[in-house]
Design goal:
This protein is of the alpha+beta class. 51% of the residues lie in helices and 23% in strands. It contains six helices and five strands, in the order αβαβαβαββαα. The chain has helices at 2-19, 37-50, 62-67, 83-92, 121-125, 129-155; strands at residues 28-36, 54-59, 75-81, 102-108, 113-119. A hairpin with a 4-residue loop joins strand 4 (102-108) and strand 5 (113-119). Helix 2 crosses helix 6 and helix 4 (83-92) packs antiparallel against helix 6.
């Protein structure tokens, strides 16, 4: 049993290392930073608050993996939203609310710096355009601007 666990741990560690960083992709904003993983997380939380969005969720496998004896780079998803956007979007498309909160993704790189990535809210809510119409598109664009401002603040 020990050897199976050891083999699994080595495989997972190698897989995590091989996965590499996040590169440019359609509908995403990706920002490499010189900041540490923990500092970038703290700065995103502060920037979100300053821009009127709350941290609604946080999840990541890093600490749970460490508890199992597996070391992986820092990896955290931070869900941001507020009730004003929730009520307005819900009035336009019940289905679109499955996408809330909209998430920012922080990953630690090999050199100890961190990357901030997120799907543009307009990209996230685009599949609901038929249902939510121009009003939903306008709210998504407002969220695009807000997320860009959060990123700008967090990256300083």
């Amino acid at each position: 049993m020990y050897f199976k666990r050891l083999a699994a741990a080595l495989f997972l560690a190698a897989s995590a290392a091989a996965a590499g960083g996040i590169g440019p992709r359609d509908g995403w904003a990706v920002h490499a930073t010189p900041k540490t993983y923990e500092q970038l997380i703290a700065d995103i939380k502060a920037a979100a608050k300053a821009e009127g969005l709350g941290v609604v969720t946080q999840a990541g496998p890093t600490k749970a993996a460490a508890a199992r004896g597996i070391t992986i780079p820092g990896n955290r998803v931070i869900g941001l939203f507020n009730n004003d956007f929730a009520v307005k979007i819900l009035a336009l498309s019940t289905a679109a609310m499955i996408e809330a909160p909209v998430r920012m993704y922080v990953t630690e790189t090999k050199d100890g710096s961190a990357t901030l990535a997120y799907k543009l809210p307009s990209h996230v809510f685009a599949p609901y355009a038929d249902e939510g119409g121009e009003a939903l598109a306008a709210l998504a664009e407002q969220l695009d601007r807000r997320f860009a401002l959060i990123a700008q603040r967090a990256l300083k």
